[in-house]
Write a structure and sequence with these properties.
FAD/NAD(P)-binding domain; single chain; 30% helix; elongated; Flavocytochrome C3, Chain A, domain 1; alpha/beta
């Protein structure tokens, strides 16, 4: 029986997709547009909006809720037919210091400790102004979510998961990941909409910022039928997400190919293009990072991630070695630091790595893929395009696409290290078996990112700024549009994408948005 490889270990929660389907496709009827002579759509509104929010997701919804509660006239422009954005796919991992949850557990924590941890883990590559704004207000955001139904598991908060650990337990999420967050905040937005304090246009894609004398005064949107609509507002918040589902823009902004797909389909980078056209610029390209590698479904670029071999030493110590396309090892496979391992992968050609092992390791080691037994591996080596089996190392290299002479030399060097108990090349200590018993095996893995590293430059008031640091009047940014390279630097810092997005949206709507009398 052939294993359904595509059903395992997706980079997001499959339960989220079973709960809610991502709706693609729009209808101008859903937003109540009137069509003027000549085909131009127009909005029937007597006065400009106080706030136009592009994107009804992790940052946009809190901004809309809190601005509406202050009496602002708020319009949300959402490309999808439903609210939520990347929360449909996110694991929803959050970090906040000084929460009521921590206090109930007797955990002492402060925003300063959180700030220090973020800067330590990122090796001071994160943007300190944005980090400070995020951590100073994160606890209020987390408590607000819990007040509205978010219920983390009993063991939370924790130190970390698949990232460099914090110094204090401040890491938590809901049982359904991002959906748990959406379930807490979407009803609040819908209540504001029902009460007439918030207007939401679903199925409208923002295309262009409207400007006058260098000031952003509104947004041009497009429906599925191509009707263009101009709306005007005193302030515009770009909360439209990243660019991870746009391979061309991904490469243009980050300098890396988008090897993996699985991001939110509306993450097309529209907000980036609009902000750049208005005079903004990007930051964080130098901080590009890929996550720990996964086994892809095919050699396509991008390809869907299929399953994951456990390379986390705290969960399973490595028996295999990892090599690059040149057939060379590049890291101590049992390094306790995920940051060290991921940065080592980042330096390899095409962010690609191969696990190499033999029959004895396959027979004696714990299963490297959660839930798989020997029959599953046999099936994969017979049918999966990323699994290779051969009677000699040279044949294995040819089949899998790595340099043969170098791979032979690498395995000989490793076997000598294993026999002596000393890995002088990389310092690995866990070396239970040599690689010498045919048949030999290789599994190709791929590093990639499903989020956006590069971000639009903004100041600590979330104003989009020009390269001379001057603010573009009327234009703000929050959420993934700011990029992981600013919020986490060149590494993964637990909870520092979802929490800042929620927090920046909440703080913007509650305090940063200036309302005219």
């Amino acid at each position: 029986m052939t294993k359904n490889f595509s059903a395992t270990h997706l980079p997001f929660s499959p339960e989220a997709l079973s709960r809610r389907q991502i709706l693609i496709g729009v209808s101008s009827a859903t937003v109540g547009l009137a069509v003027t002579p000549g085909g131009r759509s127009s909005v029937q509104a007597a006065d400009p909006w106080d706030l136009i929010i592009v994107g009804g997701g992790t940052a946009g919804l809190p901004a809309a809720i809190f601005a509406a509660r202050r009496g602002a006239r708020v319009l949300v422009i959402e490309a999808s037919l439903q609210l939520g954005g990347t929360l449909f796919l996110s694991t929803g991992q959050m970090s906040a210091a000084g929460t009521r949850l921590q206090k109930r557990k007797g955990i002492t924590d402060t925003p300063q400790l959180h700030f220090d941890d973020v800067m330590r883990i990122s090796q001071n590559t994160a943007d300190p102004e944005l980090v400070r704004l995020a951590v100073d207000h994160a606890a209020d955001t987390f408590d607000w979510l819990m007040d509205n139904g978010l219920t983390p598991p009993d063991e939370h908060p924790v130190l970390g998961l698949a990232h460099e650990p914090y110094s204090v337990e401040r890491y938590a999420w809901g049982p359904e990941g991002g959906i748990s967050i959406l379930d807490a905040i979407e009803p609040l937005a819908l209540a504001e909409e029902q009460a007439g304090r918030l207007t939401i246009w679903r199925g409208q894609r923002a295309r262009e910022l409207l400007m006058r004398d260098g000031v952003v005064i509104g947004v041009r949107t497009e429906s599925d039928s191509g009707k263009m609509t101009d709306v005007f507002g005193q302030s515009t918040l770009l909360a439209s997400g990243g660019y991870a589902s746009n391979p061309e823009l991904f490469y243009e902004l980050s300098g890396y190919k988008q090897y993996g797909k699985g991001s939110y389909p509306y993450s097309q980078g529209d907000g980036y293009l609009m902000a750049l056209a208005a005079g903004g610029y990007t930051r964080g390209k130098e901080n590009y990072r890929c996550g720990s590698p996964q086994i892809m479904a095919s050699t396509d670029e991008p390809s869907a991630p299929d399953t994951r071999f456990v390379i986390y030493p705290e969960r399973r110590q490595p028996w295999e070695i990892q090599v690059n396309v040149n057939g060379e090892r590049y890291v101590a496979e049992d390094s306790a630091s995920v940051d060290v391992r991921e940065h080592a992968l980042l330096r390899q050609p095409d962010l690609r790595t191969w696990l190499i092992f033999d029959q004895a390791i396959l027979d004696q080691s714990p299963s490297g893929i959660e839930g798989w037994d020997k029959a599953d591996f046999d099936d994969a080596f017979d049918s999966h395009p990323m699994f290779f089996k051969a009677q000699t190392i040279g044949e294995l290299a040819e089949k899998s696409g790595v340099d043969g002479d170098s791979l032979v030399a690498t395995i000989e060097q490793y076997n000598r290290a294993q026999a002596s108990g000393t890995d002088s090349a990389f310092g690995r200590t866990h070396m239970p078996l040599p690689i010498q018993q045919a048949p030999f095996y290789a599994i190709r893995q791929q590093g990639f990112s499903i989020t956006s590293t590069v971000g639009i430059a903004a100041d600590d008031q979330l104003r989009v700024v020009r390269e001379d640091s001057s603010a573009i009047e009327g234009l703000y940014a929050a959420g993934e549009l700011l990029g992981s390279g600013q919020l986490m630097g060149n590494t993964a810092v637990g909870g520092m994408m979802v929490t800042p997005a929620l927090t920046f949206g909440r703080v913007f709507g509650e305090t940063l948005l200036k309302l005219k009398a």
